[in-house]
Amino acid sequence: xxxxxxxxxxxxxxxxxxxxxxxxxxxxxxxxxxxxxxxxxxxxxxxxxxxxxxxxxxxxxxxxxxxxxxxxxxxxxxxxxxxxxxxxxxxxxxxxxxxxxxxxxxxxxxxxxxxxxxxxxxxxxxxxxxxxxxxxxxxxx
Amino acid sequence: xxxxxxxxxxxxxxxxxxxxxxxxxxxxxxxxxxxxxxxxxxxxxxxxxxxxxxxxxxxxxxxxxxxxxxxxxxxxxxxxxxxxxxxxxxxxxxxxxxxxxxxxxxxxxxxxxx
Lengths: 141, 114
Fold this sequence. Notes:
- The complex is a heterodimer.
- Helices cover 81% and strands 1% of the residues of chain A.
- By secondary structure, chain A is mainly alpha-helical.
- Chain B has 6 helices and 1 strand, in the order αβααααα.
- By secondary structure, chain B is mainly α.
- At the A-B interface, strand 1, helix 1, helix 2, helix 3 and helix 4 of A face helix 1, strand 1, helix 2, helix 3 and helix 4 of B.
């Protein structure tokens, strides 16, 4: 199972689907800020790993896969394939959350010692590295 | 205050959208799903927190974020299981499971961080 980039997938996404994710992302970022202001950084920090975009993304994945099957005249199969695609998306998110754990750890450990932008770039690379490693290990099992 | 909210909204929306588009591009879906747990909100929030309050607050947020990430891992696995086991739609499962994320996050916060 190799990783592919499919640029045509962007054409499947409607403008309002991009807009929904932008609005969700913006609102959750504002919410995280408000919670930090009101309840402090210990509680606010929890919301930096809130499943902000996941409901919208998983719903889109399910919908696109179902529509693909329906176009081929397979509505019953479409339901199942849509669910399987969204389920695979969730499995990926579970592995990505291990990367997010590494991201948080890097910020906690390094941000008092190094310039902020260096830490944020390093932590993003750590998220990437740990997520890819977890995905590769999962693939081999 | 309003200006700060607007900046947070725009920066957060842009970074979340960027990772969401990356997730759209990749196949297989299990790989694309990695981007569902991208540090998008964290990058936007931490950048602005550091700019406003300095690094001490950001370090504390990073520690709490680790707890949130554990909850996200359980949340994602639960979504996967519920969808396949009970044949439910993604929107219903992902939204209802947010209560699970909240429960685990605040449960761990109570045990580990309070």
